[in-house]
Amino acid sequence: MTEKLPQLRASDSDRERVAEILRDALAEGRLVMEEFEERLESTYAARTYGELERITADLPAAAGAAPAPPSLRKDGSTDSGAVTSWFGRIVSGEAGSSTGIGVLGGFQRKGRWTIGRRFTAICCMGGGELDLREANFAGPEVVINCWTIMGGVGIVVPPGVEVDVRGFGIMGGFDSREDGVPGEPGAPRVIVKGLALMGGVGVERKLPEAERLRLKEEKRRLKDEKRRLKDERRDRRELD
Hints:
It is a single chain. This protein has four helices and twelve strands; from the N terminus they run H-H-H-E-E-E-E-E-E-E-E-E-E-E-E-H. It is α/β, with parallel strands linked by helices and 240 residues long. The radius of gyration is 23 Å and the shape is elongated.
């Protein structure tokens, strides 16, 4: 495993290469159908190179004419197929957005935007939403100060981001369910602080929309693959 980084995110093309290796292994008799189906399902669910490597660990490096297994070595360039590529999303030098105010109303930051190293959210009988799933970060660590009076702030972070909740609530509270979850290498850290008076600050972790749709498509593709294999087995039995 020298110079290999199995914790890095795998791309769709990496999963497809492993799926092709499994198909060739099935055709060559290296895998029985039950093993193939189990490994194929694990392949489409895999998120890192380490998970993909384990799936093909007992198969030849090149099964017949199959492509080579995915390389575990990645440089700092962005992989367009990766679920989350932190390279390029931490944009030190940009000021970014720093304030959101919701008084008898609300504010929203979502989609492609840059959150500053210090962001202050003020909500009085109103609410605010900070969606960081597609956001850039002005530094490797950002601090979100939330001050709410009979209002609330909702913060959405993507998988991989470390969250540290330090806020204080009076007849209200800060959601700390995501507090302490380890972050991925290279991912930013989000510190949530402040005061919630008769209000609340919620932190939840959600997949980016593109990733959610990708997983949905992979499940559909896996279901179609299983149906195709089932039909092939039925046809072979009829021929026999």
